[in-house]
Amino acid sequence: MSEDVRRIIEDALHDLAQAVNTLTGAPRSRVSLLRPREFRFCEGVCWPKIDDGTADFSAVCVTSTFPLYAGRTEHGVTLHVAYNVNWTRDISPFVVERCRTPHELVTALYNIRAATAWCEARTAGRLRQAQEVLRQRRSK
What we know:
The chain is an alpha+beta fold. It has one domain. Helix content is about 50%, strand content about 20%. It has 3 helices and 6 strands. It has a 4-stranded antiparallel sheet with strand order 1-2-5-6. A hairpin with a 2-residue loop joins strand 1 and strand 2. About 20% of the residues are buried.
């Protein structure tokens, strides 16, 4: 695929990284932790990285399976690698490479933007909740 396609995906990932950075930097005093929602961008690439129910919002998880024997993947080795969400140039090649059709590429772009919108909505909600906690403290 072309350089333009990689750049579009990279730009969307950059927007997600900014939204994640804002979300994780939002006020935390007495504001509950977020319940994670996993977004699958394409085959083997998802955000956030979730291990044992614990979400790492600053990590994109890339899963790759390598065959132990030529042509046989049923007994392969599966690796889960976490990339910092700010490393958009490292993540975008995985997305572009794994999207085999234009439809898959558009779906990946849609899912990255959905994750960005989710972060923005959670940030706004956490800020409202923090403001309400402060308002209640002042009224006591």
